[in-house]
Amino acid sequence: KDKYRDSARMDEIFRDLVASLPHFQRRKGVDHMFVFSDQGFIVNFTHTFPSWRNHIPHSIFLTTEAFTPGCGPSCFSPWKDVVLPGHIDQDRMKAIQAKNLPSEDRTLMFNFHG
Q1: CA distances from residue 14 to 8, 44, 52, 55, 60 in whole angstroms, order as listed
Q2: Most CB contacts within 10 A, which of 31, 48, 50, 57?
Q3: Average pLDDT along the chain, 114 residues, taken 10 residues at a time
Q4: Cβ 85 vs Cβ 114: under 8 Å
Q5: What pTM was computed for the model?
Q6: Which helix H or strand E contains 19, and what residues bound it?
């Protein structure tokens, strides 16, 4: 089976989906969240929704990847987007927990390890 998607057709589907959201235009999507996995922006943006910058640039993106070859840092905004690790093994989890501090003793309130 062909693993490649028809990017023009996928782009059309995503544009139609965004256009069908009844409350999207009232704040230009800033109050909408899109969830992407499977290499995040690489698979979902640059291949299946190439015109995303024209349609959902202000929306919040929840993804498993922030680094995006072929798209670079302009695909991910740390001011509005969220990255969740796809997998953390037991040894890494123990190392992270060993560094855990009570909230009042932290200099950072959010940290990502992945």
Answers
A1: 10, 10, 8, 9, 16
A2: 48
A3: 68 93 95 76 65 90 71 76 78 86 79 54
A4: yes
A5: 0.65
A6: helix 7-20
